[in-house]
Write a structure and sequence with these properties.
The protein is an all-alpha fold. It contains 2 helices and no strands. The protein has helices at about 5-20, 25-45. The protein is flat and about 30 Å long.
Amino acid sequence: MTITTSSLQPIIALAAGVLILIMPRLLNFIVAIYLILVGLIGLGVFRALS
């Protein structure tokens, strides 16, 4: 299986969902990290990933 940018988001969402089910207190951190990464990718800071 080849992991590309388009398949990376569902994998991250699945992992985050499992972590939130196990430890609901992680929700704030997971959402914050996700939003920061999406913002950085959207701004073009990580050009190799997008």
